[in-house]
Amino acid sequence: MPDMDVLLAGLSDAFSLVNLLFVIAGVIVGQFVGAVPGIGPVMAMAIAIPFTFFMPTLPAIAFLVGVNKGGLFGGAIPAILMNTPGTPDAAATALDGHPLAKQGKPVKATKMALYSSITGDTFSDIVLITISAPLAVLALKMGPVEIFALMIFAFSVIAGLVGDSMVKGVIAAVFGLLCATVGIDPEHGTPRLYFGFFELFDGLPLAAVAIGMLAVSEILRRLASAGSTPRSAITSLDGDDPTVSRVSWAEYWSCRYVMARGAVIGTVLGAIPGIGSTAAAFMSYASAKQASDEPESFGKGNIKGIAAAESANSAVMGANLIPLLVIGIPGSIAAALLISAFKIHGIQPGPLLFEQQGRLIYGLFGAMILANATNLIVGQFSLRLWTRVISAPESVIFSSALLLCIVGVYMSTGGLFGVAVMLVFAVVGYVMNVFGFPVVVFIIAFFLGGSFETYLTQTMVILDGDLTRMIDYPIAVALVVLALISVWWLGFRKKG
Amino acid sequence: MKKLSTFVTALCVSFVLAFAAHAEWKPSGPIKLLIGFDAGGETDTLGRVVAKAMEDQTGWKIIVENKPGGGGIAMFTGLAVAKPDGQTLGMGVNMPILVNLVLRGKDLPFDLDSFDYLATIARAQLAIIAKSDAPFDDMAGLIEYSKGDDGALIAFDAKPQELLMNFVGGASGANFKLVPTKSSAEMIQDILGGHVAASFAAGAHIPYLESGDVKMIASANDGRHSYAPDTPTVKEQGFDIFVDPYFFIAAPAGLSDDTKAALSAALNEAINSDEVKAVIMNTLKTEPSDLGPQGTTDMMTGGVSNVAKLFGK
Amino acid sequence: MSANRLSGVFVACAGLLLLFLIIPANTETVDYGRMRPQTIPDLCAILLVAFGVLHAIRPRGEVAIEWREVWRFALFATIAAVSLFLMGRFGFPVIAPVTALVVMLLIGERRPVWLATGALIIPAVVWLVVVQLLERTLP
Q1: A312, A281 in Cβ contact below 8 A?
Q2: Which of A337, A352, A354, A473 is packed most tightly, with the most Cβ within 10 A?
Q3: Is the predicted pLDDT of residue B230 greater than 80, yes or no?
């Protein structure tokens, strides 16, 4: 049981006026910057970090947490309104979010994203605050062999998303995996498939490929299909009509199972460093679709699809802090950025953190709850603001979005090379789309491919090259069995 | 408030000193400091605080740019062809550069002589660690343990570490099974979870040393670590090999002597400032160590032969 | 041969090309350890050949090629590429407004207010925020 004095001191730090202002500023910055096409939540955090060098510790961390949480919701906005997600997890949100927005209900779609995002986030924050220590110990039991098995399980669930042609889905996935092998190989450290570009030693830049395939490809397509008469980028039927723009309590409540499942998937995958929010968002989406009575309504603007994706990807971030705070291990890029912010302030996350910095940690917990509340309130304004902005003529919206993607990728990859990669993959994405190869499947395989190869290599070393030795690892065996059941169930459901 | 006024005074004093010291050469515009790694990482953090301190002390304008790729190879490729006017500098880590120079030197568009070396910022302290309940306490014990039925799993996250263990394994007949990982965090996770017998660690393990979860088997540097003066190096334990990762700053070759002197003096002053010292202490758990232009050059040339030894060349 | 079937043939050929030319020429040979640098790329190439052939034999799904859109996509992609090249030479402040203006004119925007917004105000705001406020660089 924590010391009551420390807890109260920490909480009162969190609720001090200065801290409150930094949380609010962080959320606003996060929601705004995270929503700009091509920039996104991670970039927002990376940009914000240098500004926190010279701030006091708690406000600095609180500000970054605000940016991160605001950014998580912000990232869903362009995905829903323009179908131009900047990250793979936002691509999961776009699957149903954008169709709903196209039906003239952009405010409703973004509201659903906001509510489910905060629901998932709050759930994982509560888990973090109450039972992080035992969970972190459990997570440590997951070694390379177990994580490899977990990835197999995740893939087996996500496979349910492959569209009308299984063969095309497999080709897209294999192509994604192939692209993920560009760069240094995990076991021997030799550079592969870099064609003389030293920039490719670290692999194809993730941000450039994701933004190129998901956002720029769509922007160029929209430019290409634009008629010669000026029109708005999105038509909002709901505007200020509360009956269309509202998410009613009944609708929210009907998503309770979907959101609960999403929150649990996100929390579990977040607590285990190594897999991350892409897998969580798509696993949650795929299982919501599978469990639904009307799976065919997914992808056509079903609010449950939005709820599934957003609750899971937001839950990952809170849960990422479990291994971060308890054992000092970051589970995602955003978490790694947070660790470097801690370190700059002389704080080493790890076993002694709660003992030595109890007050700060409770302050941080207080700030997280505050940030969630702020997110909810600020979100109401920013989603209306963005819906307004996007109803400007599409000529302005898409030309600006194109410039912003160039700027965002230039900043995050450090040069025009990354921007060129972005453009190449925009074309690849368009061609795949025209021929009916699922781009989203490519992106999932590409994002998880690097870790997949690393964990496979580690597993091979640990098992002396003999995969049947996995039998000595009960957790791994259980996960593989679950994967088999999931594949069987997928086949069964399809026929039934 | 008082703190602020002392800070301002210190700033003014250092301004005056700086102008006195660097009267010979002044940049004619902003200086670009290229960082060979992503935003948000250790190198980025160090580079940005050094740049900030240098700005405060000299009044020069310094723009920091991230040019990630290949552990700095991409950035140095660009730096090698930049104009040697002292307005473009690059910061990287020596190890990936040295490894690539030794292994695929002919494919690289630069060599050691393509740069003028200005300063080092700090030396990362690389340790070999194990869980505290492991049945061994030093390299000899680890080697003995590895000769058991299943060998010893050892996690590493960079090529030189793998080579160092191969060197030790070759010399002692140990059965090390080397597990490649992507970060020091992942290695700590594997150690704490009991998934590997030993691993490398570059500072992230220090809190666990304090908490008693982890013990240190050896220092992999060419010298013991400040926080663990009783743990001998791999070299002291009988294997003539070490890995010394340095953060360093270089410029394209051909700087004039004035420029070189002014830049290295400014860098030295910045690196030893209190702000930079604090950040180095916080991130790397070590003191700043600026070897100066000559020392940095020697470190790089010496590094090539040491890395060649790691590869058995 | 339908475009859908053709895509399978293309994938299979790409797989063969990768397997026998591209991958061997662009990887290094290592003779120890559990995995080769080529293991996963080769596996991918083989799967591409296999599934490409499968798709060519029994094409599924739909292919909807709308030539007007394809050509215009190529046009806008080319504009973006040229703009990138020019940005590397002349910088963002010069090229970004021109790019935005060309793009807007091409999709039929003629209203001066909106043209000014997209071609002047937006690039200026981006430049001010990134370069002045955040002290990051742009091309």
Answers
A1: yes
A2: A337
A3: yes
- Binned at pLDDT 50, 70 and 90, residue A236 comes out as low
* Minimal-distance CA residue of chain C relative to B104: C28
Contacts of A436 in chain C (CB under 8 A): 4, 61-64
Q: How far apart are CA B22 and CA B1, in angstroms?
A: 31
- Mutation target vs A (from B3, B178, B181, B195; most A CBs, 10 A cutoff): B195
ipTM above 0.90, yes or no: yes
User: What is the rounded distance in angstroms from the CA atom of residue A110 to the CA atom of residue A91?
Assistant: 14
Report pLDDT for B72.
87
Which CATH number goes with the domain that contains B263? 3.40.190.150
Query: In whole angstroms, how far apart are CA B93 and each of B71, B263, B295?
Result: 8, 19, 15
Q: Say which residues have a Cβ less than 8 Å from residue A454's Cβ, sequence separation at least 6.
A: A186, B180, B181, B182
Tell whether the model's pLDDT for residue A485 goes beyond 70: yes
Question: How far, CA to CA in Å, does B181 sit from each of A89, A182, A265, A407, B154?
Answer: 25, 17, 25, 32, 10
Tally of domains within chain A: 1
What is the rounded distance in angstroms from the CA atom of residue A244 to the CA atom of residue A180? 43
How many residue pairs bridge chain B and chain C with CB atoms within 8 Å of each other?
A: 5
Contact of B63 with chain C, judged by CB distance below 8 Å, is answered with yes
Residue A493 pLDDT: 60
How far CA A211 is from CA of A100, A201, A413, A431, A441, in Å, comes to: 22, 20, 12, 16, 15
pLDDT tens digits, residue range A197-209? 888 888 898 889 9
Chain A residues whose CB is inside 8 A of the C84 CB are 406, 416, 419-420, 423
Residue A24: which residues within 8 A CB-CB, separation 6 or more? A66, A374, A378
- Asked which of A106-120, A196-210, B162-176, C69-83 is least confident by mean pLDDT, the reply is A196-210
Is position B237 within any domain? no
Q: Are residues B155 and B211 in the same domain?
A: yes
**C137 in B contact zone (CB under 8 Å):** yes
Q: Which residues of A touch B71 (CB under 8 A)?
A: 201-202
Q: What is the pTM of this model?
A: 0.89
Rg (CA), chain C: 23
A449 touches chain B (CB under 8 A): no
B93 bridge partner residues = B247
Q: DSSP readout, A233-261?
A: SS--S-TT-HHHH---HHHHHHTHHHHHH
Closest-CA distance of chain C to residue A391, Å: 13
Domain that holds residue A299: 4-495
**Residue A203 and residue A216: Cα distance in Å, rounded?**
20
Instruction: Kindly state whether B204 is in contact with chain A, defined as any CB-CB distance less than 8 angstroms.
Output: yes
Chain B contact for A466 (CB, 8 A cutoff): no
- What is the model's pLDDT at position B40? 64
Residues B108 and B140 occupy one common structural domain: no
Phi first, then psi: what are they for C61, rounded to 5°? 75, -175
C-chain CB neighbours of B65 within 8 Å are: 136-137
Q: Is B28 on the interface with A (CB under 8 A)?
A: no
Residue B240 lies in a domain: no
Cα A7 to Cα A362: distance, rounded to the nearest angstrom: 6
Q: Which of A395, A436, A460 sits opposite C118 (nearest CB)?
A: A395
Domain count, chain B: 2
Residue of C27, C34, C36, C134 to mutate for B, most B C-beta atoms under 10 A: C34
The answer to the question of residue B18 being in a domain is yes
Domain limit, last residue, from B174, B201, B219? B219
Q: Give residue B169's domain range.
A: 127-219
A280-to-A109, A129, A270, A315 alpha-carbon distances in Å: 20, 21, 8, 9
B257 with B188, same domain? no
Residue A341: which pLDDT band, with cuts at 50, 70 and 90?
confident
